[in-house]
Amino acid sequence: MSALFNFQSLLSVILLMICTCAYLRSLFPSIMDRNKTGFLGVFWKLARIGERKSPYVAVACIVMATSLLFWT
């Protein structure tokens, strides 16, 4: 099934995008900061979510990892 039709896969993709964008912004802040609007602004917003809500994102990643390991 596609990630769009499976809710657990969709959540995994969203969490991975948040973590990836936050990590890339920490490495290359100038690339992310110049694209705040338009289509590429989505990645900037995901990076901001990853930076500001990092404890919640970390807990969500741990919960998702355990659910994928033990209940799939």
UniProtKB/TrEMBL annotation:
What is the stated purpose of this protein?
Involved in the early part of the secretory pathway.
Keyword Membrane belongs to the record: yes
Q: Which family does it belong to?
A: Belongs to the KISH family.
Please report the organism this UniProt entry assigns to the protein: Glossina austeni
Question: Main location per UniProt?
Answer: Golgi
Q: Where in the cell is it found?
A: Golgi apparatus membrane
> What name does the UniProt record give this protein?
Protein kish
Kindly indicate whether the keyword Hydrolase belongs to this entry: no
